[in-house]
Write a structure and sequence with these properties.
Layout (H helix, E strand, L loop, with lengths): L16 E3 L10 H18 L2 E5 L5 H15 L3 H4 L16 E3 L11 E3 L17 H29 L25 E4 L2 H6 L33 E2 L18 E2 H13 L17
Parallel strand pairs: 1-2
Antiparallel strand pairs: 2-5, 3-4, 6-7
Helix pairs in contact: 1-4, 2-4
């Protein structure tokens, strides 16, 4: 990819910052501001695949409350958290809802509480701390709306890509971008599927969580996924229609997810051996 200096915000973050306020506004100049924000997202997707959003519609108070309650839950004794551990074979999903830890031999040393859409009635919630369930479900609703908005922006970005001339990047260059937490902001990562659809015009970079020595790190990850039966391949406007060969073979999304889940349920001894989207690369 092309190597560019990172865009820095006033907060000192090295990630591009996108203000989503125009998408919630009916002011006369909102359309022009939305176009600028969409262009900022497009540039970020081409350069790094990451961007930080502000004025995103998720209340800051809710974000702070969710992190505070999350920290209180994970501070509970292991035997209390284990009550939410799913029983073997108790779920029809490959990765069941509940409290989980990677296997002991996994290089990932974390613990997490996995929840799905509350309407599916798959989730299990702890009794303590009080208010955690309400915060999770409120967050889920707000983040769903945000995910759909970003999806619409990405769709527009792919339209903006039409007719552009792409310059080959230098595969030896790496874009190293620290992503320090900034209160009230949310980091978006476009992921592997958008990279495939855009025939690698948009980037899905490797990313890792770095925990500061002697400190716990709490985060809330929200995934916007396709249905398992959807077919994924480079879109014609990024391949055949512009005279470029596809860089990935087509695949069903559910098959890809099965491969990725093996990284969690049967982790390789080395992180670099994890199965990723390169499995489908041509």
């Amino acid at each position: 990819m092309e190597h560019k200096a990172p865009t820095r915000s006033r907060s000192g973050s090295a990630l591009p910052v996108v203000d989503l306020a125009p998408f919630f506004s009916t002011a006369g100049d909102a359309a022009a501001a939305r176009a600028r924000a969409t262009e900022a997202v497009r540039e970020a997707c081409m350069d790094t695949g990451f961007f930080r959003v502000v004025n995103h519609g998720v209340p800051r108070e809710l974000m702070a409350r969710m992190l505070e309650l999350s920290a209180a839950f994970f501070a509970l004794p292991d035997e209390e958290k284990a009550k939410l551990r799913p029983a073997e074979g108790s779920s029809s999903t490959p990765l069941p809802a509940g409290y989980l830890r990677p296997p002991a031999d996994s290089p990932d040393k974390n613990e997490y509480l996995l929840v799905f859409n509350p309407e599916l009635v798959l989730n299990v919630y702890p009794a303590e701390p009080a208010g955690l369930r309400d915060a999770i479900e409120e967050c889920y609703a707000k983040l769903t709306n945000l995910g759909l908005l970003i999806q619409e922006i990405l769709n527009e970005c792919m339209g903006l890509l039409l007719g552009r001339r792409w310059r080959p990047g230098d595969p030896r260059q790496r874009w190293l971008c620290p992503a320090e937490p900034v209160e009230g902001t949310i980091i978006a990562n476009i992921g592997d599927i958008v990279q495939v659809l855009s025939n690698k015009k948009f980037k899905s970079p490797t990313h890792r969580v770095v925990r500061k020595l002697g400190a716990h790190r709490h985060s809330l990850a929200f995934f916007v996924n396709l249905h398992e039966d959807k077919w994924v391949e480079p879109l014609p406007q990024f391949a055949a229609n512009v005279g470029e060969a596809p860089r990935y073979i087509g695949f069903k999304y559910g098959d890809y997810m099965q491969l990725r889940l093996k990284n969690t349920t049967h982790p390789p001894s080395r992180p670099e051996d994890a199965v990723g989207i390169t499995h489908y690369a041509i």
